[in-house]
Amino acid sequence: MSFPNHRPRRLRTTPAMRRLTAENRLAPADLILPAFIREGLTEPSPISSMPGVVQHTTDSLKRAAAEAVELGVGGIMLFGVPAVRDAQGTASLDPDGVLNKAIRDVRAEVGDDLVIMGDVCLDEFTDHGHCGVLDADGYVDNDATLEIYGRMAVAQAEAGAHVLGPSGMMDGQIAVIRQALEESGHKNTAVLAYAAKYASAFYGPFREAVDSQLKGDRRTYQMDAANRREAILEVELDLEEGADMVMVKPAMSYLDILADVAAMSPVPVSAYQISGEYAMIEAAAANGWIDRRGAITESVLGIKRAGADTVLTYWASELAGWLKES
Ligand code: PBG
């Protein structure tokens, strides 16, 4: 009787055997929770396209941060939704503006027990919804925007952010932010560069989350989904400019990019499982079409397996809770 020479199934026979031989593992410390705070709210406000995610009040944000610490989550990435917007995104620079105040409040709540990150980008603060300021032709003005990013970075560092996350895809943004931080005495504030960030249809629900005013798209600054090699160029530039960590975004439709970046990056690599990825799984699960917990766990594990050291995911705290119990 003939028999297979190799039986890979031997290592799959029991849960204990599978656990022992797993090549990758998820840990709460790898997870970063993106969170929204909206100015002037008295109650947390649900985001309809992201069931389970809310726009926070100061109090509910502090509670979410404290819970993340409890669960062993690695970090929190803060996004602010201001009450008033203008063409220059002025509210981003106000030390008492919604995002800077949230950074200060969360830092006061959790201290150094959670890595506090701030979104350095203008899209939540501008009345046209673009990630930078516009020139006379309505084109996003790269260098005028850089000047504002530098000041925004200093304001967030002063508020107590441990890490800054520039997400606007302006050329030279990491260098300008690094220089502004050094000159203002914030030499230990780290930069997580959104290095390879693609123009994506999957950002849809985020635009609701931040009440985005955007008409049109971001294709003149975010990357084209067709491009793979270009991601390496973007990462190399950000490393040259002083990035401490680099990110690929979105995650699930860009796992090839993530694997490429993980293979060449000498610094930790993040991936952002974005709002549309969250919404798809929640919607399918709500219809009973997929197993919610299984799909969430598998999706984040897939991102880890492709090469991410850390994963930004709206499920960070819930997933950390599951990991703790198992
Ligand atoms: C821009 C920004 C976006 C996201 C994070 N930062 C939106 C965009 O580029 O249009 C999207 C995150 C998500 O979809 O979950 N500041």
UniProtKB/TrEMBL annotation:
Annotated SMART domains: ALAD (SM01004)
One GO CC term, this protein: cytosol
Keywords from the named record: Heme biosynthesis, Lyase, Magnesium, Metal-binding, Porphyrin biosynthesis
Binding site for Mg(2+): 234
Broad EC category: lyase
The reaction(s) this protein catalyses: 2 5-aminolevulinate = porphobilinogen + 2 H2O + H(+)
GO molecular function: porphobilinogen synthase activity; zinc ion binding
Entry-linked Pfam families: ALAD
Any GO BP annotation: protoporphyrinogen IX biosynthetic process
Enzyme Commission designation: 4.2.1.24
Binding-site residues, 5-aminolevulinate 1: 207, 218
Residues of the active site: 197, 249
Stored PANTHER family: DELTA-AMINOLEVULINIC ACID DEHYDRATASE
The protein's role, per its UniProt record: Catalyzes an early step in the biosynthesis of tetrapyrroles. Binds two molecules of 5-aminolevulinate per subunit, each at a distinct site, and catalyzes their condensation to form porphobilinogen.
Known partners and oligomeric status: Homooctamer.
Record-stated family: Belongs to the ALAD family.
Protein name as annotated: Delta-aminolevulinic acid dehydratase
Species whose genome carries this gene: Paenarthrobacter nitroguajacolicus
